[in-house]
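Give me structure tokens for this 342-residue protein.
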Amino acid sequence: MQVCLEFFGALFLLIFIVFSCSLFTNAIEHFGLEFKFGKNAVGSIFAALGTTAPETIVPLVAIIGGIIAGNETVASEIGIGAILGSPFLLSTITFFFMGVGIYIFKWAKTRKSLNLEINNHYIIRDFKFFFVNYFVAIGASFAKFPLIKLLALLFLIISYIYYFVQTLKAAKNSDDVDSEIEELAFAKIFKFNKRFIMFIQVTFSLIFLILCAHLFVLKIKFFANFLHIQPLILSLIIMPIATELPENVNSLLWLKHEKDTFALSNITGAMVFQSAIPMSIGILFTPWVFDTNGLANIICVILSSAILYFAFICKKQISAKVFLFGGLFYLAFILFVLRNLF
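Here you go.
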């Protein structure tokens, strides 16, 4: 009986997550239009920062909670797994879902083309920042001296600040502003100043989004315990599925309406953030050492991201089929983990 209740509870939470993501994407589009920020800045910075809140908070709470409770080993294992799991999910299964989503939307005639209409320059730049940050963060795990890890931590924080400032500077008063957007959802209910309503909608959707993601993680923990799955597997694979839902849903919603720059920059912007801030938390609060599962996870992230990166360099138009490769690396890692379990 409890299993059924937990299952339906998780299902309702998924519906609420989709609903809050819809409110958030609607508000963030109006934010970009109101302040004349380009599509890339809206996707890479504002949307990415908002939707990465759950996967940033979850490992931080796990690590700090474990330290307070005196169970640092398990807390570090969950924290490291969750931190590594987020870029893994973004660079593999999220890309795969985007590719599948494009095919479905084309079949349903909500999209005209299987190709994405985006500005390659900004996406390539996001990938470059991601690779540099990711290699520095992973390289810090092999450092024998604390000073090197501290320097890596400072580099990651400064790198993201630089990325943030440069993205805003390039996008301010950009011509690449989306003017074809739906009416602000809360404007249908409240009759206040537009900017105030926009602020209320962003705040409400983010709070509701974080709350639902947190509750969904608890549901996943229940099923992990029920199925006797070890904490590392939970944090590497299962937990990020819940915390990455906002990015997945946001991108699919934007792809459905052919807002491809919003959709992809939301993912690449989140990848840049995940390779900098959460990994800084990992370096600071955990031993930051990886086992074979962690190393396999890292290899899959690098290979999957590299395929898409070189596709953007070599082609002006990217087809949906390129994104499907992410699913192969996700499957390869799952099989690797299962082989070690059994």
